[in-house]
Design a protein that fits this description.
- By secondary structure, this protein is mainly α.
- The protein is globular and about 50 Å long.
- It has eleven helices and no strands.
- Helices cover 62% and strands 0% of the residues.
């Protein structure tokens, strides 16, 4: 491993750069991505995204192509989402969206954009493999506890955003907590960034809806922004899909 893939120490991440981060905004984005990626969509959730104009208010960051295209796709999808009064159309739209989530992230059959990191990082491409155990040990060492709807591998991309949600919530009032900053750096560099962009690429490629295509692009862009904000480079790991 070359030295240039190591994260900067927390002391090298200047206080001014941390102060420039809107952790309230970042927590909101992480929460949206957690709920969007961890489970099948529900009508109330999509309605809430539409009413809150999530696509229109999503930050542009550095105006990368992933960002502008993702916001455009998401906004177009939400604008066309049927009103509750049109019951038949609303039910049809929700079923179609659920099918898209299933084929991307859940099944039946093998998902086209598997959301568990070990499938990308381990040669056998199995869930709950070696890298999942490493993440479990990392969380245990830092007192991280996950609230799961059901038993599932903890390296699901949606669960990473739940941990980031919690971390950004704490950083709103603990901006000088160097241990917490270091935790986020290592989480990104060693456990999430090495494979998550590939997951997003597969989701963009295989999504049948502009909702998940747009979200995948926005997820990828947000990860790029976090990499820049926390001044880390992803560890270069071989990917097996």
């Amino acid at each position: 491993m070359s030295s240039n893939t190591q994260p900067l120490t927390p002391s090298a991440l200047t206080q001014s750069s941390i102060n420039n981060i809107d952790f309230v905004e970042y927590q909101g984005l992480a929460r949206i991505l957690h709920h969007s990626l961890i489970r099948y969509p529900e009508a109330d959730f999509i309605k809430g995204l539409k009413e809150c104009d999530v696509a229109g208010s999503w930050p542009e960051f550095n105006q990368r192509t992933e960002n502008s295209t993702g916001r455009k796709l998401l906004q177009g999808f939400l604008q066309q989402w049927p009103n509750e009064a049109d019951t038949a159309q609303a039910e049809k739209a929700l079923i179609t969206l659920k099918l898209d989530y299933g084929q991307l992230f859940f099944g039946p059959g093998e998902p086209t954009a598997v959301p568990q990191g070990s499938v990308y990082l381990c040669e056998e491409q199995l869930i709950n493999d070696r890298t999942t155990v490493e993440l479990m040990d990392f969380y245990r060492a830092h007192g991280v506890e996950l609230q799961l709807d059901y038993k599932q591998p903890i390296d699901h991309i949606g669960l990473f955003f739940a941990v980031l949600d919690q971390s950004f919530g704490r950083l709103q009032t603990e901006v000088d907590n160097q241990a917490l900053i270091r935790f986020v750096q290592v989480l990104l560099q060693q456990h999430l960034l090495p494979w998550a962009t590939r997951c997003c690429e597969l989701a963009v490629e295989h999504a049948n809806s502009d909702f998940y295509r747009g979200l995948a692009l926005l997820t990828s862009d947000f990860l790029l922004q976090l990499q820049q904000d926390f001044q880390v480079l992803a560890i270069d790991k071989r990917l097996f899909r």
